[in-house]
Q: What sequence folds into this?
């Protein structure tokens, strides 16, 4: 029995509310259970120096957790004077995941920055950030297309992410914090809507896992991502 009472292959309740930010070109609040993330997308007519003049666009991301997104207050990283390694790792993951669904030639020489701010954390914040981040990106690109600034749609496929793991000896989908903290195996699966894998992060947290278990987790993740993609497309209509 899972702590939440969910079935092994059951996602948490997911909602995506768009138009959260008045000023951002694209924005949404994604809620995956008790994990809530505000995602905004900003378009700029510039690119990093290393691709300037190439004609290619760029998508990057920043990620952060608010001080009371967790059970006890965390110190703001800005007041500490530097980002934690976890923060840097996650925002790089978000950026490269979103870029995997973008035709950078079609985007043109401009940059889209996706900011993901965790309002409340209960496991799976990076997965929620990627999933909500794509919706914010989709809405921002819609603005470019409406204005005629891009000729063809630069988003080739939705991008979504979900966690899976081995909890109490069983493969489960979409771990919340009580499961994540006790899971013998923990993994994050980032995929495109067409089924192509972007990245898989798997680790043995207390027990090793077999190839058969890996295949079972991948099957759960595929079903979960397809469910998320349906919600993304509906939200960004």
A:
């Amino acid at each position: 029995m899972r702590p939440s009472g969910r079935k092994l292959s059951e996602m948490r309740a997911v909602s995506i509310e768009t138009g959260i930010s008045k000023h951002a070109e694209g924005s949404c609040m994604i809620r995956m259970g008790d994990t809530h993330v505000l995602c905004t997308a900003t378009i700029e007519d510039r690119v990093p120096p290393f691709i300037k003049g190439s004609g290619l666009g760029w998508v990057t991301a920043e990620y952060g957790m608010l001080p009371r997104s967790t059970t006890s207050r965390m110190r703001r990283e800005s007041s500490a004077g530097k980002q934690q390694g976890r923060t840097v790792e996650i925002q790089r993951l978000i950026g490269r995941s979103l870029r995997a669904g973008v035709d950078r030639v079609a985007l043109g020489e401009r940059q889209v920055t996706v900011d993901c701010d965790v309002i409340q954390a209960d496991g799976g914040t990076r997965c929620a950030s990627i999933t909500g981040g794509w919706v914010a990106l989709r809405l921002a690109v819609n603005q470019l297309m409406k204005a005629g600034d891009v000729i063809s749609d630069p988003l080739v496929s939705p991008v979504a992410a979900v966690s899976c793991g081995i909890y109490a000896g069983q493969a489960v989908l979409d771990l919340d914090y009580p499961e994540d903290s006790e899971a013998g195996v923990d993994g994050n699966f980032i995929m495109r809507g067409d089924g192509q894998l972007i990245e898989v992060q798997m680790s043995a947290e207390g027990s090793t896992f077999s190839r058969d278990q890996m295949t079972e987790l991948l099957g759960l993740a595929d079903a979960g991502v397809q469910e998320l993609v349906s919600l993304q497309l509906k939200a960004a209509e």
Observations:
- The radius of gyration is 18 Å.
- The chain has a mean pLDDT of 96.
